[in-house]
Specification:
Elements lengths: L12 H6 L5 H13 L1 H12 L8 E4 L7 E4 L2 E2 L1 H5 L4 H4 L3 E6 L5 E5 H18 L7 E5 L4 H13 L2 E4 L6 H11 L3 E5 L1 E4 L2 E4 L1 H7 L9 E5 L13 E3 H4 L12 E2 L3 E7 L7 E6 H16 L6 E4 L6 H13 L3 E5 L10 H9 L3 E4 L1 H11 L13 E5 L5 H11 L5 E5 L33 E4 L12 E6 L9 E2 L3 H9 L3 E2 L2 E2 L1 E9 L5 E6 L3 E4 L2 E4 H9 L4 E11 L3 E10 L8 H15 L8 E4 L13 H9 L14 H12 L3
Parallel strand pairs: 4-17, 6-7, 6-8, 7-14, 8-11, 11-12, 16-17, 16-18, 18-19, 19-20, 31-32
Antiparallel strand pairs: 1-2, 3-13, 4-5, 9-10, 14-15, 15-23, 21-22, 22-26, 24-25, 26-27, 28-29, 30-31
Helix pairs in contact: 2-3, 6-7, 8-9, 11-12, 14-15
Bound molecules: 5'-O-[(S)-butoxy(hydroxy)phosphoryl]adenosine.
Length: 656
């Protein structure tokens, strides 16, 4: 534990006065309520927040843990919750403000959103035959039609599975096949740094093999570039949408009907389709929007994520719209035309809450430290971060230069599987410490447990970040693989004889009980706030014909948080002469198999890997070598202890 006490920053008093949760006593009251009457607590909020078509009969059924049911018997529709129920009071309020890469703008009111979503739903239903329970893969840029597509699926009860636009054709194909998707919604492409880039050709390539399940592809024409059209399969959204009726009934859904799948990396095997269901997910998306960002009726909120990740799902589309907020959608990159772009937008739209990732903060800080001074950022009230631990220098710049030392920084800790925030400051209540996620939110039984004993660890001790009771927006399953669901999340930590949800992250309490997340305890790397499984990257690299063996580990990276470091054993020593070409070939394979996000920052060719006698690769040794640390692990159990020294010298020299 560090001996230096972290400074504490009290919430802004004027802000706290108006906040939904005003001080730590109010926080504690809510948390006590949840502890004393867990079901009563959730019952209260489910009744207050959700516009039910039919009431539920049971709050929580945990008799078949970890397969839980929340709000059983209830009927609702998430698109209705996000749109229709606002039409009385907010019909002409901006729901989505879109800004394109080139500065083009669109303001979509709740009434317009209602019409646009209904038309898209009618198109999917009447022209494509999409029905309740069908899977629809969405492979889209950051344009309003991506949100319409999500909400149109929700309206029909179809299950969407968004694949991030940076994933390759192979990765897209795997996800289409795993979900047995019936329809793909995409765009010709979009704009980035003033230039068109393409998505449709990636879909074409993905569909070349093994995707017989896909009957129809809907293409939104965004950048107007030429694309190929497959007759009878591909349809233009732009040509068809105006013929659709702007009215479409919202399908009454059971609380536990699936809302979406989102694939994420695990420590082993292929990505898993994390399943979220309707009522619990939307309830917590809305509650955390209200508590953690404290968005007010006339506020404008901006989350810079991409809809391809969970942050984009919960905190660009579902959460903000469920509470009736105005949410910004931005197509471009934060550093174009310069690193002042986000601050220019904050000034222009008078953004009140701004939510981004530490990696973006580091890049903006490094490339444009003086940019914020050029703009009026006084509208900002709450600044959020997510995706990885934020380092103190980035935190300081964010707090002082962006927030003018008056905004709360909410360091929100959560993951794809949790659906919404788990551990986070409350902006009007929690005294914050730099780079510290602070306390579990009210209703969340988050605890750091000792993996051996299942007991809560003491101050200064490290343990595993767990959640000891099911919460409404918890993952409901891994698509098509219930065993993997149980094993991945409920296999490692047992408390009082019962398996509890383990996040995969290590954490510790400080002397005041504050939670600091220290990072993954498994073989998952966090690259720019995105999870990358080492097994996945290794499987991709192994497809390169020159490679005999490979192990990848994470290595601290100035901007990305972690970069990917690969140790490669070549089949043929003679190839050593063409290492540069081989390196290029390896990164090309990764690009093809996964996408640019998984490219290696370092590739080192080594004569062998450090393995135990049973053949297990000792990754800890490889992590230490990548960081340039001295090896403290016992290497005597290795099959060939000499290999460690050889690898060290390869890394030092950049080659063998
Ligand atoms: C993993 C989840 C949650 C949306 C974005 C990423 C890490 C997330 C924090 C934070 C420290 C964090 C964890 C977690 N993480 N937020 N505030 N402090 N670490 O979603 O791809 O599911 O990744 O990101 O390691 O397990 P994801």
């Amino acid at each position: 534990m560090s001996e230096v006490k972290k400074p504490v920053f009290q919430p802004n008093k004027a802000f706290a006065k108006e906040a939904r949760i005003k001080n730590m006593c109010e926080y504690q009251e809510l948390q006590d309520w949840a502890h004393e009457d867990y079901e009563g607590f959730w019952d209260h909020f489910a009744k207050e927040k959700i516009d039910w078509f039919e009431p539920y009969t049971n709050v929580l059924d945990e008799s078949n843990m970890p397969f839980v049911k929340w709000f059983e018997g209830g009927k609702l529709n998430v698109a209705h919750q996000c749109i229709d129920r606002h039409l009385d009071s907010r019909k002409n309020k901006a729901a989505i403000i879109f800004e394109g890469d080139r500065g083009d703008k669109q303001i979509i009111t709740y009434l317009e959103l209602y019409y646009n979503v209904n038309k898209m739903a009618n198109l999917l239903k009447n022209e494509f035959g999409v029905e309740k329970g069908d899977r629809v893969v969405i492979y889209m840029p950051m344009i309003p039609e991506a949100a319409y597509a999500m909400l149109a699926c929700a309206r029909l009860g179809a299950i969407h599975s968004i694949v991030f636009g940076g994933f390759s054709a192979e990765a897209l194909r795997d996800r289409i096949i795993d979900a047995e998707a019936k329809t793909v919604i995409t765009a010709d492409g979009a704009f980035r740094k003033d230039k068109p880039y393409m998505l449709k050709p990636v879909v074409d390539k993905a569909l070349e093999e093994g995707c017989e399940c896909v009957g129809k592809v809907l293409v939104v024409e965004r950048n107007g570039e030429d694309v190929e059209w497959v007759a009878g399969r591909d349809y233009s959204y732009n040509e068809m949408i105006d013929q659709q009726s702007p009215v479409c009934d919202a399908e009454p859904m059971d609380s536990e009907d699936p809302l979406f799948l989102l694939y994420t990396s695990g420590s082993t095997g292929k990505p898993k389709g994390v399943q979220h269901n309707s009522a619990g997910y939307i309830l917590w998306a809305q509650m955390t929007m209200e508590w953690v960002f404290d968005v007010k009726e006339n506020d404008t909120y901006w989350c810079t994520a991409d809809v391809g990740w969970i942050t984009g799902h919960t905190y660009i589309v579902y959460g903000p719209l469920a509470m009736g907020a105005t949410t910004i959608m931005f197509e471009g990159v934060p550093t174009y035309p310069d690193a002042g772009r986000p601050w220019k937008m904050v000034e222009e739209y008078k953004i009140n809450q701004f939510y981004t990732a530490p990696t973006a903060i580091r890049v903006l800080h490094k490339t444009g430290a003086e940019e914020p001074k050029k703009y009026d950022l006084s509208s900002l009230k709450v600044l959020g971060t997510v995706g990885e631990p934020i380092d103190p220098p980035a935190w300081k710049w964010y707090y002082e230069d962006i927030g003018n030392s008056k905004c709360a920084i909410v360091d929100t800790y959560w993951q794809t599987e949790t659906g919404g925030h788990m551990v986070s400051p409350l902006p009007g209540a929690t005294p914050i410490k730099p780079a510290c996620a602070t306390f579990p939110l009210p209703g969340i039984m988050g605890e750091i447990l000792d993996p051996e004993t299942g007991e809560k660890v003491g101050a200064g001790e490290s343990g595993y970040m767990c959640v000891t009771r099911p919460w409404p927006s918890m993952i409901r399953g891994v698509w098509g693989d219930p065993e993997r669901f149980v094993k991945s999340y409920f296999g490692d930590v047992t408390k009082d004889g019962k398996p509890v949800y383990f996040t995969g992250d290590g954490a510790n309490y400080d002397e005041d009980g504050y939670i600091t997340i220290t990072g993954r305890t498994d073989d998952v790397i966090n690259v720019s706030g995105h999870r990358m499984g080492t097994a996945e990257v290794e499987a991709a690299i192994k497809k390169s014909s020159d490679v005999a063996e490979v192990a990848v580990v994470g290595k601290p990276h100035e901007l990305k948080g972690e970069g990917i470091f690969a140790y490669v054993v070549l089949k043929n020593e003679e190839n050593l002469g063409e290492l540069v070409d081989t390196m290029k070939a390896i990164n090309n394979v990764i690009k093809q198999e996964i996408g640019n996000i998984a490219l290696c920052d370092d590739i080192v060719f080594v004569p062998g890997l450090p393995k135990t006698r049973s053949g297990k690769i000792m990754r800890r040794i490889l992590r230490s070598i990548a960081k340039g640390e001295a090896i403290t692990q016992d290497t005597s159990t290795l099959e060939d202890p000499a290999v460690v020294g050889q690898i060290e010298s390869c890394v030092k020299n950049g080659s063998c």
